[in-house]
Amino acid sequence: MTSNAKLRHLGIAPRKVRVVVDLVRGKPVGEALNLLRFTPKAAARPVAKLVRSAVANAVQADENLDVDRLWIQTITVDQGPMLRRFLTRAQGRATRINKKTSHVQVRLSDGKR
User: What fold does the segment set 2-109 form as a domain?
Assistant: First the structure.
């Protein structure tokens, strides 16, 4: 059985989120949440919340599910829309600042394929 969860429009650049996501890919849920709890990165908290949401989705779908057997099958980070802002510069010019966002998707599995 698989369970999915999505986090969209996260206000952290995808390259920064991928560092955190690479830590937990393929790990059991309990170990992944423990790693995320002690990771000193800003993206660790939203990713942990996403994993807990996927666990809740799995429990909601199947009441007899053993949560300790769940593991992270796939977790991906894609780029979301960019917020374009402008910073004033010398001599009346402006410089564009791209504030990047991320979309994160996670799929949990219970070991039965």
Answer: Ribosomal Protein L22; Chain A (3.90.470)
